[in-house]
Amino acid sequence: MSIRKTITALALCAAGLSVAGAGTALAEEVVGEYPTAQACSDKLEELAEHGDPGPLMCVPVNADDQDGPNNLVRD
What we know:
Blueprint: H1 3-21, E1 29-34, H2 37-49, E2 56-60, E3 70-74
Antiparallel strand pairs: 1-3, 2-3
């Protein structure tokens, strides 16, 4: 994986986390459901590579299991 693709994926995550952390009541659209955090991250990277405008982020289904099932959400 190239550094450029990694930076793009991280930028999309950071943008999503910034909006989520701001405490605003924005609607989130669930783009997909994935069995693991890694599967969600892989899909996020794939979408970034194909020019998805974001912001997208992976959100754990269960707060106690960060590596378990994740939803890919768009803010």
